[in-house]
Amino acid sequence: MDLHKKASFHLSVSDLAQPPEDFNGDVDSEQFWKALTEERIARGFVSSQKNNPFSVPPSFHFWAPWIGRNTRRSDCVLNTEFDKIRPAKAAEVSEITVSEDRLRDELCKQKVQVIRNLCRECGLDATGSRTDLLLRLSQEMKSREAYDKVFEKIWAASGGWAVIMCPCGIVYSLKCNIRAESPRDFADMLLSWKHMPNIVIYDFARGLSTHTNLRQPQTIPFTPFEGRLMDPTAENIAKAKAGNVKVSLPWLTCKKENPDPDGHPITGSAEHYVLYDRFHEDNTKDARDSLRKLRLVPQLAGKEYFSPVKPWERDWHPVQEKLLDYVLDVKRPGAEIIVKEGKLCLIREEFWSLGLLRDMDSHIGNACMQLIIEMARNIGKDICIENFYVVPTWKETTNIVTALPEDADMKDLIVFPAWTKANGPDHYIVCIMRPLRREIVFLDSQYAEHESGFGDEEYRAIFRQIANQIDPGIWTEMTGKDFSYTLSMVCDIEFDFQEAKKKQKHHTRCPTARPSSPRSDKN
Questions:
Q1: Which of 8, 207, 267, 327 has the fewest CB atoms within 10 Å of its CB?
Q2: 224 prior amide bond cis, ω within 30
């Protein structure tokens, strides 16, 4: 289960009417999605959404997740988002607390006008840059009164698409959150299912288990051990941390011969566990969560969501080897089209520039960056990468026009790959901006040759100018070591510079291992 932020929209709690007094969270799914279908059809016959007679505005009492007919219990499904800002139960507060840091992250995603209004409501100066406003609110949130005010306002912002899918990629439930994502959204969908899955993987496993069990105290959905794989004794926790224990769940591969009462029809088991995904299993501070790790279950080992190997460290599959040998074969025609995706066509000669020890063509550089954009989107990050051909033209004009989107100040990352001939051999440099943090990172593969760590001052000035257009004010500047940092920063993972230890074939074919320059005639 995960969240996808591409569907996010800004919506203040004051813009939403409270549901009727007798509303208990049940919504007719068939009726809602029929109404939404009619709205989409009618949209093609009116000049704007305001004139659409079939419009379905967000509301707490008529807003349903999509759950397949064969998956849900009935046409009535749950949506209890109206309860998100009500006081939580004492047992839940200790497990699920929206920290200042998490609330601050949500605050950073809001539009400037929303932040200004919050400053006014908290009695703060509402003038100045976006960063000034955020700093004032951050300091003010240390008081409980201001924290509650910010919480009620910000926690009403949309949290994107909440998605439940199986490891093979089939989507079973989908919901556009009205308010920011929380375990409640996924509990609503799971409790609407006819058969709850035996294994649930989520980035806040402890919170989901606690919340769901408190909502259904008669049945305790996640059991045994509150969804942990073992009883959380000191001995079991120590063994799990040391990697000295395994919990076999044989019914994952072979249905129980004698199914449990109310067991799942596929596995025959009535056990239900909530485990952390691989990228979040070490983020928790609760020692008991060491019993929620996927690696403890032998039947889950080797799955894509479990693999501890970084993408660029995996061994080649024999089929991949054959494909690479074919694509990079210098004896075959260089003009042969290898990839055609929409308007994009890549020929063998361009792949030679990427996979062999040659200068990289900018055309294929753009294709590689498109893959990085897709990878970022898959982990919930919204990034923008400028065209390889466009950036070099900025040195030739005083009127820099970028194709950045209107919401550039809300992007997680903006990347500018540039080709430089200044101060040394021709090579790539990269500027990465983090607008929400107002940070600029200047990356130069020839960093060691320059005291400042970046060898092209003309580009530095250009990138500073663009940053000031995105969000006027003071930005924090840093330098990095390698072009390969781009992928590392997008994925929020450490970059390992010990590339030399890898096999020679990996070193020469991996675009993140050795940045190369574009051919001068194509740049």
A1: 327
A2: yes
